[in-house]
Amino acid sequence: MSTKTWMIYGAYGYTGQLVAEEALRQGKVPILAGRDPARLEALGSRLGLPTRVFDLSDPVHAAERLEGVSVVAHCAGPFSATSTPMIQACLTSGTHYLDITGEITVFALAHAQDAAARKAGIVICPGVGFDVIPTDCVAACLKTALPDATHLALGFDSDSGLSPGTAKTSIEGLAQGGQVRENGRLRPVPLGHRRREIDFGRGTKSAVTIPWGDVATAFYSTGIPNIEVYLPAPAALALGMRLSDPLRGLLAGEWIQGKLKGLVTRNLRGPDEVTRVRRPTWVWGEVRNAAGERRTAYLETANGYQVTVHGVLHAVRHMLDYQGEGGYFTPSLLLGDRCIEQLPGSGQIRITA
């Protein structure tokens, strides 16, 4: 294992703390970083790990605070606000960039930095958590199974709760509506605009399309031009999602966004350890080609937060010993299309005709 230095930014958030605690259990010594001195000092003192305080309002200053850091695991959302300044700081400091986003716009913005990352000799790989390692691996394996696939559908089924950060990102997503990829281009659609019956791995359920990150990343990984992502939703919820579409303008307002996020801050703490251990996730994918041939994939993983913790640490280990070229990567392109199978609690991707 390399002795290079790495950092968790946003270390005192729900997921950041889980990553830091597991890193320590594995004998690793990351630098803990974030913008809140009191919360950071409390965490650093509890775990006995070094800390660096800085915010991302000035990418030049942030780059200075990344001095000597080989890899940053960026865990401070919402990534729509934090990813671009952190990526800019990493380009300046020569630091490899990893994050745990699931936001389509963030993946697209990161992908647009491919040339700059190549020039700087750094890797930019967002989405090294549950968003989007499992589904990205399923997409890549399905592409191998049916190389001329024209359509890809992905989805997952889980009883996991939400962390405060994920809930706040979801609130932002309500205002943005849904997205799919059609003929290689991202297309805005209403939330839940398409329904179908899917067996994700534990029985058939009604499901609807959601704006998941794979609408961006699976295209980069596979080149398949038509992509949708599904989540189980009862008929009443699916109807409510579609009926809420005309309210997107209202939901985008600063006042209502602030109120909803305030409710999250006051009332949501994220799933506890018992919940994380006992509630696995089922991942599903399907491809078809112009001739109508189909392949279907199934995968069972640990709870989404467990996948995220171990996914981040797996990616960090890979990058600390990395000798390849810089650029933008998806998890499957950087870590291999079956890297999910190496994470604790994950099974093997099973493909059927």
Summarize the structure.
By secondary structure, this protein is an alpha/beta fold.
Describe it for me?
The chain is an alpha/beta fold and 353 residues long. It folds into two domains: 155 residues, NAD(P)-binding Rossmann-like Domain (Rossmann fold), CATH 3.40.50; 172 residues, 2-Layer Sandwich (Dihydrodipicolinate Reductase, domain 2). The chain has 15 helices and 16 strands. Strand 10 and strand 11 form a beta hairpin.
What portion of residues is helical?
A: 40-55%
Quaternary class: single chain
Identify the CATH class of the largest domain.
Answer: Alpha Beta
Task: Report the mean per-residue pLDDT as an integer.
Answer: 89
**Number of domain units:** 2
CATH fold-level topology of the largest domain: Dihydrodipicolinate Reductase, domain 2
Rg, rounded, reads 19 Å
Spatial separation of the terminal alpha carbons: 40 Å
Number of strands: 16
- In CATH, the homologous superfamily of the largest domain goes by the name Dihydrodipicolinate Reductase, domain 2
> So what's the overall shape?
globular
Largest sheet: 7 strands, parallel
Q: Give me the secondary-structure category.
A: alpha/beta
